[in-house]
Structure prediction request, 216 residues.
Amino acid sequence: MSAGEQRERKPRADVQRNRTALLETAQRHFLQHGVGTSLEAVAKDAGVGPGTLYRHFPTREALLATVLQTCSEELVARQADIDQLGDPAEALEQWLRAMEEYFSAFNGLPEPLMAAARAQEPDNPLTIPCHILITATEQYVRAAQLAGHVRASAQGFDLFLAACSIAWIKGNGADEESLDRLRTLIASGHRQRDEKKLDAPPPAFDTAVYSRRTYE
Prediction:
């Protein structure tokens, strides 16, 4: 068999079956017990040994990132609807709510996402989905800035963290009234008060900016 044929060879049926079982079981455990659930329990309920789990997903972050990818269809659909809105300010607000709900999918999910976004470690599988979401947020921010609805100082990275923070607070039992006040407070921090176009356009978005940040 040639090297090309070996590369194109499909995974064995049992390997694919184990992977599917692990993902379905992990999603159920994340829903029931949060992202800190026992990986050994996931493997046991999936009918495989811990070694099989770690061959497919070497770290908890790798498993979580893959589960999130399989659960992203609703967020993608919502983004398509948001992109049809004619009001950039409303599009930004709806996108922030969509991310907030996405981050609330599993108890404890905001923490590893915020950590991955801040650290930007290339070996962390959560870094890529964070990068995608931050870039999308920055695009909504920039559109609202150009329309004069959002301050030039606002950045997608910060609003990504804000959405994560609200999801974290929500997951720790805050009532909806308190969450609405917090959302209003955050919105007052990035909205352009006079609703007039900015004298100067916002700076061009550099996808590497947020990755260079450091936190004390």
